[in-house]
Write a structure and sequence with these properties.
- The complex is a heterodimer.
- By secondary structure, chain A is α/β, with parallel strands linked by helices.
- Chain A contains 18 helices and 22 strands.
- Chain A has three domains: 234 residues, P-loop containing nucleotide triphosphate hydrolases (Rossmann fold), CATH 3.40.50.300; 168 residues, P-loop containing nucleotide triphosphate hydrolases (Rossmann fold, 3-Layer(aba) Sandwich), CATH 3.40.50.300; 67 residues, no CATH class.
- Chain A has a six-stranded mixed β-sheet with strand order 6-7-8-3-9-10, with helices on both faces. A six-stranded mixed β-sheet of chain A has the order 17-18-19-14-20-21, with helices on both faces. In chain A, strands 2-1-4-5 form a four-stranded antiparallel β-sheet, with helices on one face.
- In chain A, a hairpin with a 2-residue loop joins strand 1 and strand 2.
- Chain A is globular.
- Chain B has a single domain, classed as ABC transporter involved in vitamin B12 uptake, BtuC.
- In chain B, helix 4 packs antiparallel against helix 5, helix 4 packs parallel to helix 6 and helix 8 crosses helix 9.
- Chain B is an all-alpha fold.
- Helices cover 72% and strands 1% of the residues of chain B.
- Chain B is globular.
- Classes of the chains: A alpha/beta, B mainly alpha.
- At the A-B interface, strand 1, strand 2 and helix 10 of A face helix 9, helix 10 and helix 11 of B.
- Bound molecules: adenosine-5'-triphosphate (ATP) and magnesium ion.
- Adenosine-5'-triphosphate (ATP) binds next to strand 2, helix 1 and helix 15 of chain A.
């Protein structure tokens, strides 16, 4: 394919360490014009770090960086931008307080001769770009008011249409619904055919195989393999990623799966006729001890709102919540926590303290239990250490600032904070988003463990695989209403998609 | 190319160890300290009367009232809120404690004299109540603290005006007189009170669960809520703490100045905010603390006092103070950015 030609971007022997943590060790990487290059690897393998080097986020590293045949070094993201490199970061990096239009043009607003921003032109062009990408929103709405998936789409659109010739997408699909993913792939193929080079990082191996021409596998800061996508399989890639047989972890859920007969666990949560303005309509269901209830639906189906109501962050317009037999109207998240409800939301930014060490992130929800007035740092660290080991969070150092962990490991920290004193009802939004195959498996095992301990667990996800791999019973939510329940019967990815 | 970047063993997981990143992440603490050393050095050279033990005592006394008020304000700013009513609340509390004390016959105020301890308790209750109103406005109604405390600034000034009606009161309870203007073993009581309150604030912020919550709410309010913290309770508490600290500062201030009257504390609003911010506590919340505030107080104290020792147009002094404050704000915002980069 691209073998004969010389690459437009070539990295040689790249090594990068953060203090004592070696994130990259002598990595070679080449990108050709008109190629989609897939990148896979476990959490913390160094994928994002390499991409951040290319995008000028990390100016300090050792090794050779050759762009267009010339050795170069970016001092900042601005340099990279000027060289035609655009990146969508794993963490949303939009400005929630600006309008959609401003976000689309972030840093390059059209101005008139006097330097004033040309609002009307900007809104019109933003609207056109977004609708080309199938997004239909008023460009003048505040971005933060939109659902997170839509924010992600807008950020992707911004980079795709910025005119960059090298585009890096770090786990761009984690919050997208299947049709949106399709649209993204079509656009990527079109851009590639026009000569743009694209790097695509994902933990969805099938997506990688479908969309990319070449795949590179990372493990532990090293490049393990690079092959043409056509010449490899999911199993082979997983094996390369984790360094052992991948068959056990490979499961595509295309075949029917038999859900167990509903058990006789006591009812922990009963939701009756819940409604919230335009988001939820008369939603009723029950969650039982020792059972995982999956709630599946496309983005915007009301899942997020539902989870917020269960945790006292949103107040419903109508309907009742009964927890352990007592009717509840939660006035605050603190009240919900005291009633034994715990929530792990889908957005890492919203649930973690990036500037604080890992142990403070883990102990925050249980401080009340371990200290009356004075803090007990030793105890706190010990508890955090135990969780870090149990969940195999890497690096296993509780004193490290959370921002220094890789995305998937941060996700585990978010879960860890509820595990020391398990709640009665655990609500998980997108619990495996951004996790590698191995870590997903870890989460599945943790959830099964908790279920065995008698917790009632609700898993909300827009990924059919997540729900199928975890749930004993599945509700399908569509435009704020429960449209289907799968219990004690056969279910598959297709059946779920069909119902939603 | 940073060679220190790659020369470390993989087994050793520590914080970034290079000196440059460390300094960058510590910018917020280092810059105010350097400013303090620089200013002290400058004035020591410029004026022989500056660097003396006596003058150190002066500086300490001069920053005491600001220090007491700044303790509570530090809590508020750590939560990424602001309290603009501190000076007015200090003023009204100082006036209230005089209002409940028997004045000399020539003072023409229709006041309500009562025993000293009752006067103090009533004054404290008043400032706590005003703080509570701030708290309720912020948390229950959802008025931004900037606006809410702006209104409170006016309300407290109004109550002051009604109590003294343009008159001046002189007497406060003996305990307040002692703490405000007395001294023990040559050390003014007011310095001791300020030191104790600063220490207390530091202990609360560093070693208690509440202190941890203050930092967490300031660091990421949404995450704090998702962790099941009662964010409103914490925000409300810091507003009350701030008002009570201001009230104490006001009572002692009145004793220190020797009189209670309208608009007596006006300069303390800016001074207290400046002390906290110049010290390096982040305006975005979650970073900083009483240690920073103490350094900020000294920077301000040295600056105000030092300018008196050198021959400078007293009107120019105001401008200089403004410029120093601006520089500190720039550093404050810049330090935040550097820290974020260091964490990248
Ligand atoms: N700013 C930083 N400071 C310190 N360590 C860091 C920093 N960024 C990344 N690391 C470390 O470098 C390693 C590689 O992280 P990176 O983010 O590149 O992983 P990743 O392959 O993108 O993983 P994920 O799939 O979880 O996103 C991890 O061990 C991580 O803890
Ligand atoms: Mg990553």
């Amino acid at each position: 394919m691209s073998q004969g030609r010389s690459p437009i971007l070539e990295l040689n022997q790249i090594t990068k360490a953060f203090g004592g943590v070696e994130a990259l060790r002598g990595v070679d990487f080449a990108l050709h014009a008109g190629e989609i290059h897939g990148l896979v690897g476990e959490n913390g393998a160094g994928k994002s770090t390499l991409m951040k080097i290319i995008a000028g986020v990390h100016p300090e590293f050792s090794g050779r960086f050759v762009l267009d045949g010339k050795e170069t070094r970016f001092r900042s993201t601005r340099d990279a931008h000027a060289a035609g490199i655009g990146m969508v970061h794993q963490e949303l990096s939009v400005a929630p307080d600006l309008t959609v239009a401003e976000n689309v043009f972030l840093g390059s607003q059209p101005t008139n001769r006097l330097g004033f921003v040309q609002w009307r032109q900007m809104a019109r062009e933003a609207g056109e770009q977004l609708s080309r990408f199938g997004i239909d929103v008023d460009p003048m709405t505040r971005l933060g008011d939109l659902p997170i998936g839509l924010q992600q789409l807008i950020e992707i659109a911004r980079v795709l249409f910025s005119g960059a010739r090298i585009i890096i997408l770090d786990e761009p699909t984690s919050a997208l619904s299947p049709p949106e993913v399709e649209r993204l792939f079509t656009t990527l193929h079109k851009l590639r055919d026009d000569g743009t080079s694209i790097v695509f990082i994902s933990h969805f191996i099938e997506d990688i195989l479908r969309v990319s021409d070449v795949v590179t596998v990372f493990r532990n800061g090293r490049k393990i393999a690079e092959t043409a996508s056509a010449d490899t399989t999911k199993g082979a890639l997983i094996e390369a990623m984790i360094g052992r047989g991948g068959e056990a972890l490979e499961h595509s859920y295309t075949d029917d799966l038999m859900l167990p007969q509903p058990g006789g666990g006591s009812t922990v949560l009963k939701v009756d006729q819940l409604s919230l303005r335009r988001s939820l309509q008369n939603v009723s269901f029950a969650a039982r001890a020792g059972e995982v209830l999956g709630i599946y639906g496309f983005m915007g189906c009301g899942q997020l709102e539902l989870s917020r109501i269960l945790f006292g962050k949103l107040r419903p317009d109508g309907g009742t919540l009964v927890v352990d037999g007592a009717a509840k109207t939660f006035r605050s998240t603190a009240a919900a926590r005291r009633a034994g409800v715990a929530l792990v939301p889908e957005s890492r930014r919203a649930m973690l303290f990036h500037q604080e060490p890992v142990y403070k992130n883990i102990s925050i929800s249980i401080l009340e239990r371990i200290s009356a007035l004075l803090l007990k740092p030793v105890r706190e660290r010990a508890i955090a250490q135990r969780q870090v080991e149990q969940l195999q969070i890497r690096p296993p150092v509780v004193g490290l600032d959370l921002g220094m962990l890789s995305g998937g490991n941060q996700q585990k920290v978010a879960l860890a904070k509820w595990l020391t004193y398990p709640p009665r009802l655990l609500v998980l939004c997108e619990p495996t988003r951004g996790m590698d195959v191995g870590a997903k498996n870890d989460v599945i095992n943790i959830v099964r463990d908790l279920r065995a301990k008698g917790l009632a667990i609700i898993v909300l996800s827009t990924e059919p695989e997540t729900v199928l791999s975890l749930a004993d019973r599945i509700l399908v939510l569509k435009r704020g209403a429960v449209v289907r329940e799968f219990a004690g019967e056969a279910v598959s990815k297709d059946r779920l998609l069909e119902a939603a | 190319m940073a060679s220190s970047d790659s020369a470390t063993s993989p087994a050793d997981h520590k914080r970034p160890r290079g000196l440059a990143p460390f300094l960058r992440s510590q910018m917020r603490n280092i810059a105010p300290f350097l400013t303090l050393i620089f200013l002290s050095g400058f004035f020591a050279i410029a004026s022989p009367s500056f660097a003396t033990i006596d003058n150190l005592g002066n500086i300490l006394t001069q920053v005491s009232v600001t220090g007491i008020i700044a303790v509570g304000l530090t809590f508020v700013i750590l939560c990424a809120e602001i309290d603009l009513s501190i000076a007015s609340i200090a003023n009204v509390t100082g006036i209230a404690v005089a209002y409940f004390t028997l004045q000399e016959s020539y003072v023409n105020i229709a006041n309500i004299p009562m025993p000293g301890f009752a006067a103090i308790l009533l004054a404290l209750a008043l400032c706590a109540l005003l703080g509570l109103v701030n708290a309720l406005g912020l948390t229950i109604i959802g008025i931004p603290s900037f606006i809410m405390t702006l209104a409170m600034m006016q309300i407290a000034a109004g109550v002051s005006a009604l109590l003294v009606r343009g008159q001046i009161a002189y007497k406060v309870p003996p305990l307040i007189t002692t703490l405000g203007s007395g001294s023990i073993g040559g050390i003014p009581w007011i310095v001791i009170v300020a030191a104790v309150m600063l220490l207390g604030g530091h202990l609360v912020l560093t070693y208690t669960r509440f202190g941890r919550y203050v930092y967490m709410v300031g660091g990421n309010r949404e995450a704090a809520e998702f962790a099941g913290l009662n964010v409103k309770l914490i925000l409300g508490s810091v507003m009350v703490i701030s008002a009570v600290c201001s009230g104490i500062g006001g009572m002692l201030g009145v004793a220190h100045f020797g009189s209670a009257q309208q608009n007596e504390f006006d300069t303390y609003l800016l001074d207290s905010i400046a002390a906290v911010v110049v010290g390096g506590t982040s305006l975005f919340g979650g970073r900083g603390g009483i240690g920073n505030t103490i350094v900020g107080l000294f920077v301000l104290g040295v600056l105000n006092n030092g300018l008196d020792h050198v021959n400078i147009d007293s009107f120019l002094k105001i401008l200089i103070r403004g410029l120093i404050l601006l520089a500190a704000l720039v550093i404050n915002v810049y330090a935040q950015r550097l820290r974020e980069q260091a964490a990248e």
